[in-house]
Amino acid sequence: MKILVTGAKGFVGRNLCLSLAQMPDVEVLKYDLGDEAKLDGYAAACDFVMHLAGVNRPKDPAEFKTGNTVFTEDILEKLAARQNPPPVLLSSSIQAALDNDYGKSKAAAEDAVRAYGEKTGASVFIYRLANVFGKWCRPNYNSAVATWVYNIARDLPIMVRDPSATVTLVYIDDVVKSFISHVECAETCRGFESTCSTRSTRLNEILSVTPSYTRSLGEIVELIKSFHDEPQNLMVPDQADSFTKKLYSTYLAALPEDKFSYPLAMHCDNRGSFTEALHSAERGQVSVNVSKPGIAKGQHWHHTKHEKFLVVSGKGEINFRMADDPAGKIITYKVSGNKLEIVCIPPGYTHNIVNVGDTDMVTLMWANEVFDPENPDTFRLEV
Prior knowledge:
383 residues, Jelly Rolls, 2 domains, Rossmann fold, 6-stranded parallel β-sheet, alpha/beta, 10 helices
């Protein structure tokens, strides 16, 4: 399939084109400003049109009609002249329901797409998008979220007029997934368009992307600020909450190049080092332990806390015994970076890890809770 994407260099267009390019047997025809000479050829060759191009911040309000309505009508006229006009998906806006110049121009573009569908019998899909957020959204343009993640990542000031005000957002990957579903259907149902319920019921329907998220501006800003604090507190955001997960991805994509990494506090002594790497309120902490040859670390037990050890380099032994039985059986696991395996450290067992090799031993450690010095649940006892 040859898919024409107008507005290919825009926020949604870049993400959409990248995903379409991963599909087998799909050729993406990218159209944007400066490609006017290619439009006739693209319109004659395409099998599907994703019409994303539009104007939303013109110097002259008259450009709303030119860039949104007239341009849409021009493309549709070229498509309608073909013997077999292709399906058209229009990326419109929730402002199409409002009485302003921008909204009126988008509503008129929707009407033009409906008329094209009625005239040609081609399938049409009209989406009114809410506020879209995600990677590559342009800051200081028309997205508060894009501006906030950009500024906060750079320690720049932000403005929030009313933190209690709410906004409805959709994530770019969900937008792309929804758009591509129609391409997949068009390929599967080619030749059977009239009987395909997915394609034949869209003419007068306004489509929306799911899921959507309604949040207060203050809540969004506080989340972004918490992402900014991660290098200091090592706290990874809650990935079980889909909005937080997607907003965090948006923030990471907005980081300046010199903030892709951050140093960790290594606690070093003659035995080696211990370094906390990641914290999670829901999933505990991940640490890296380096032991010198002959060194035993641990020699303690926990009531409730439990851990998992993974030796990734070197050679060692992990030893256990029941904490309440000084003469009890000692259980030993031999571990090595040559054979990766996880050893679980259950509650109630005093334990140690001994470097029995002649090189540093590196162990990746996970604990089910972040260490709390006020309630360490850690009791000294040699194995």
